[in-house]
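User: Show me a protein chain along with its predicted structure.
Assistant: Here is one chain, sequence first, then structure tokens.
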Amino acid sequence: MSTHNSFDEHFEFTGKAKTYSLVGIAIGIITILAGFVTNHSLQTFANLLLMGYYFTCVCMAGIFFCALQYVSQAGWSASLLRVPQAFGKILPLAAVILLVIVIAGLSLTHPQDIEGKTVVAPYLYKLWAVKGVTIKGNENYNAVIAGKAGYLNKGFFLARIVGFLGAYSIFGWLLNKYSQSEDELGGVFYYSKSFTISAAFLVIFGFTTPLFAFDIIMSLEAHWFSTMFGWYNFAAMWVSTLSIITLTVIWLRSQGYMQWITQNHLHSLGQLMFGFSIFWTYTWFAQFLLVYYANIPEEAVYFLRRWEPQFKPWFWLNIVINFLSPLLIIMARDSKRNTKVLAWTCGLLIIGHWLDYFVMIMPGTVGPQAEWWQEIGPLEIGIFLGFAGLFVFTTMTALSTFKSTIPKKHPFLEESLHHQI
């Protein structure tokens, strides 16, 4: 590795981080196999969907971070762009993993109870993907689902997911390509191309992200609907991604890399984490309030399931972690400039938004088990560790493929190096 103060600094993925990430992957694989072998297939599929979705959303939002900086012509973030660019590099892998989970969950079936009847249904998306649900006269016929069959059918469903993730991956690849070409040739030609492609990406991303959330998560409970759900999911993915970017930068600095990143940059990242945690809370409460005062049975049942004794403590802990933690810990200026405090807050928010996705997915797929403290057990923890290890391993490997850990010919690099707040 070259001198850490040099803009030719190259990241090398070695040491304990690499070992721990591989151990995490091994734990995840063993846990998944154990889940299927011990007849916990439904719970295993639900956790795979949760972590596959989380993994993919972080990669998507990494591209969003880069695009947002280009379109807003932000200078402060230029020196740390390699981290979210690495997230974008691994989106194709995350997309394939999520697609495999979804296809397997739709294809493999088992007997389960649906609205008081035992039917052979897929492990995931059982309400709308069970055979005969749209055929009048069939014992599985459901008039509500039949009315949505034009949108909720396997072919169109999978085509949308492939289309969304394929488009995001292409944009991420282009932004990475232009940034690396900019490093080699200099000038503003590739920056202008990055600006243009980012503007197109943001338009497409803005319209399709809610649909992506509707498909992957909301359609698990296809009787329910909420126009707020897409933006609520966007807020969750954005806050968790900001937290992971910040934690990654802090770790890299602790290893001697990216020494040009100062407390001012971390302060700005902390501001974004705090501000969008408040936005997440707004969408959480707005969705809850709209359902509460409308009192439409098809909507209210969503929260009724989450108020069952097995899920209610997790439901409220979700809002405590994701709202009160940033509010009480990093609202103050000094807290955002304290590396240890900021790192702990990042960790809390990463776990908090895992819990957020848990509350979105588990009540409508697995349902209540025993006592509330038993809802999160070895299966959930093991699969979380597996995907965490996979994310660290693939992201750090992607980061090591860059010739330099800084876009050294970015037009706004000097502004970033002298960022003060």
